[in-house]
Specification:
Protein name: Acyl-CoA dehydrogenase family protein
Order of helices and strands: HHHHHEEEEEEEEHHHHHH
InterPro entries: Acyl-CoA_Oxase/DH_mid-dom, Acyl-CoA_Oxase/DH_mid-dom_sf, AcylCo_DH-like_C, AcylCo_DH/oxidase_C, AcylCoA_DH/ox_N, AcylCoA_DH/ox_N_sf, AcylCoA_DH/oxidase_NM_dom_sf, Mito_Isobutyryl-CoADH
Radius of gyration: 22 Å
Cofactor: FAD
Number of strands: 8
Number of domains: 3
CATH class of the largest domain: Mainly Alpha
Number of helices: 11
Oligomer: single chain
Family: Belongs to the acyl-CoA dehydrogenase family.
Structural class: alpha+beta
Strand content: 5-15%
Shape: globular
Helix content: 40-55%
Organism: Variovorax robiniae
Length: 406
């Protein structure tokens, strides 16, 4: 079974155009209409991606030279925010694909051009999704250091891969797996092996039963003697060369740009979840009129104050996300430490905004008959994305203390 059954014919193919506001609003409403069912069942949102592909949106960020839209970060954020307001697991899977597509167009990309083009055109023509598979049972997040236990052995003109990956977001709908692993050479190299999702020896352990983003299908994947061509080892380096500050200034700047894309897209996603919670709350406060009050809750100054606090938190998010996206699009990505602080601020503001909504709505906000408790569960997932809060604050603190000492 392919990732998506929907294909676009040769006559249909053209550079994906940025969607207008009316289309984004339509998508948000349509995705919201099935979000509760997807959350309860945890099924992969196939219909959502078919709809996205019908509008040419899966290839929106793919490089223009390969038929994609080459969208800016600002455009990408507007789409992710609309999708996430409706169904955030769909937005997360799309975000992960777009991060890979953006990397395909970077000048420092080391993948063979034929594979870059194949992955991008697969997305444009048939909505093929891709994600990086990095986390392992013993390694944890590669951002914390350490060598992966996933091993590739050279066998003639192929690599044969064995390994075990966790939290493989979207695996049920992916077409391509960018697998983080190491070679079994005397001096191991570490990097990415491009594996077709349905290659022989790739199996899925359906273990994802999470608090939030339940439809993301972030199951485990086992690789057992999976064979790929030598050329599919798309970027192998000595372990030390993967350090964020390794290499030339061009490499460091490219890393900063990629991290900025990641944190701004993820920030837009979780900010959108908080805005969906805020919008539900506003409706509830106008409709809820306790008999002892004789007026809607919206008439109470205390309630108005807390709604104002929610709007203040989300206003800060909007300014930070918009300014950073504009800076990245103009070629001025912030340093990685500053991107980390952006992620920390935006996600914590989003969590606090939904928490305030729960306080104002009481039991009504916690019942599964209303979407607010789902928004709460989903927004809490923002904390687990790299870079995590402790790493962000330690890096920022070290920098501040070093600068003060200097």
């Amino acid at each position: 079974m392919s990732a998506l059954p929907l294909r676009r014919t040769a006559s249909d193919l053209r550079l994906p155009a940025p969607p207008d506001a009316a289309l984004l609003e339509k998508l948000a409403r349509q995705f919201a209409s099935t979000a509760e069912d997807l959350d309860r069942g945890g099924a992969f949102p196939h219909a959502n991606f078919e709809l996205l592909q019908s509008h040419g949106l899966i290839g929106l960020v793919a490089p223009r030279e390969f038929g994609g839209g080459g969208a800016t970060l600002q455009t990408a954020c507007s789409v992710i925010a609309a999708v996430a307001r409706g169904e955030p697991a769909t937005a997360l899977i799309l975000t992960m694909t777009w991060l890979q597509h953006h990397a395909l167009g970077r000048s420092d990309n080391r993948w063979p051009i034929a594979l870059r083009e194949r992955v991008a055109r697969d997305a444009v023509e048939r909505g093929a999704l891709i994600n990086a598979l990095r986390v392992e049972p013993l390694l944890g997040s590669p951002a914390r250091g350490g060598l992966p236990a996933t091993v590739a052995r050279r066998d003639g003109d192929t690599w044969r891969i064995d390994g075990h990956k966790l939290y493989t977001t979207g695996i049920e709908g992916l077409a391509w797996l960018a697998v983080w692993g190491r070679t079994d050479e005397p001096e191991s190299r570490v990097g990415t092996f491009l594996v077709p999702r349905h290659a022989q020896g790739v199996s899925v352990v359906a273990s994802w039963d999470h608090l939030g983003l339940r439809a993301s299908g972030s199951h485990e994947v086992i690789f057992e003697d999976v064979s790929i061509p030598l050329a599919n080892a798309v970027d192998l380096r000595a372990p030390g060369e993967w350090a964020p500050d390794a290499g030339s200034q061009t490499d460091i700047d490219a890393h900063a740009t990629q991290q900025a894309w990641m944190v701004v897209l993820l920030g837009s996603l979780y900010d959108a979840v908080a805005r969906a919670a805020r919008d539900w709350l506003i409706g509830f406060l106008h409709q809820r009129a306790p008999s002892g009050l004789g007026a809607p809750l919206a008439s109470l100054p205390r309630v108005q104050e807390h709604v104002g606090e929610i709007d203040a938190l989300l206003h800060v998010n909007r300014v930070l996300l918009d300014e950073t996206a504009a800076a990245v699009d103009s070629g001025h990505a912030p340093p990685a430490i500053d991107s980390g602080l952006l992620k920390y601020t935006v996600t914590n503001n989003a969590i606090r905004a939904v928490e305030l909504a729960l306080q104002l709505s009481g039991n009504h906000g916690l019942t599964r008959h209303n979407p607010l408790e789902r928004h709460w569960r989903d927004v809490l997932c923002s904390r687990i994305h790299t870079p995590q809060n402790d790493a962000v604050l330690v890096a920022a603190g070290k920098r501040a203390l070093k600068e003060a000492n200097a």
